Amino acid sequence: MTSDGTPSPAPSSVEHSPSSKHEQVGAWSALWASKHRCDESKPQEAALLHRIVPAQRLDGKACAAEVEAALLQRVKTLTANGTIPHLAVLIVGDDPASHVYVNSKVKMCERLGIRSTHIALPANTSEQTVRQHVAELNQQDDLDGILIQSPLPNHMDEEALTDLILPSKDVDGFHPQNLGRLVQGRRDGLLPCTPSGVMRMLDWAGIDLKGKRAVVLGRSRIVGMPAALRLAARGADATVTVAHSKTEDLPSVCAEADVLVAAVGRAEMVQASWVKPGAIVVDVGINRVDDASRERGWRLAGDVSPEVEHVASWLSPVPGGVGPMTIAMLMENTVRSAESRHVGGTE
Ligand code: GUN
Q1: Which of 87, 150, 225 has the most ligand 1 atoms within 8 A of CB, as the residue to mutate?
Q2: Domain 86-188, what architecture?
Q3: Structure confidence at residue 37 (pLDDT)
Q4: CATH class as words, domain 35-60+194-324
Q5: Residue 147: which pLDDT band, with cuts at 50, 70 and 90?
């Protein structure tokens, strides 16, 4: 971190000998201790500073594969009873990353036997046209889920369009009725996919959140805010802080976290010295950064510096962490919607 509050440049990726890596981890831990006002006379706190085991992989890909296997059975049961779950994905414009995400969603539908309708509209489409599409999809009885890929072009009111989706088909979980249920602590609505993916991965890794201090970096309606609600909800029972662009002394706030969920959309912003040794770190970021060494000229980077691996006890990779889980949770929401719309619900 520089004195003006901006993150320091990511540490170089030169290979470290084991002893210099030790020293580096020691330096990060000492920095953390100074932010956290660590009391080294307490054995528990002192032990943290000498932790040198690399983080375990919070493997979203493996967890998503288990979710998919269970969903396959549910889709088979639905199909045998005459209902093929059906998801419509609507995308406007030509943002390449968004098209990649939408294609992954469509492919996952194919793998699971879920029917998909892919509506791709040009960037200059009017908001009224999108409204008409949503109204028609709402009416379509054989359709269980509607997703409008974000971001939409600037001339559209994304929230207003999301609000038009029938709550029972809102597989993104962004409709005020679904988010309102989440605030009420209810589980009968459709829940936002990325926070669900984060919670499922933590559960899959056997991590008990009860009483832990969680810090969520980012307050978006898609990830940050619903993730904070899920972490604080009964059953999860973490104590949650939501940090954002106006938070003062972000490194010190992060230094308090037993569980850090980074969802700010800034490549490798979270530095090793911000992270409590042994913390659980979930990296929600998927950022494209220039990389001349790659044929395509870019690589994917999370919101967390790779060096955090040497400080955290668990770290989700990018790619292969939260990304596959988000899609798996979208499929689960679609199947759940089909079950409750056609069979009266199985959960
Ligand atoms: N764009 C990035 N993430 C998401 C998501 O979870 N849902 C939608 N609809 N758009 C996104």
Answers
A1: 150
A2: 3-Layer(aba) Sandwich (3.40)
A3: 67
A4: alpha beta
A5: very high
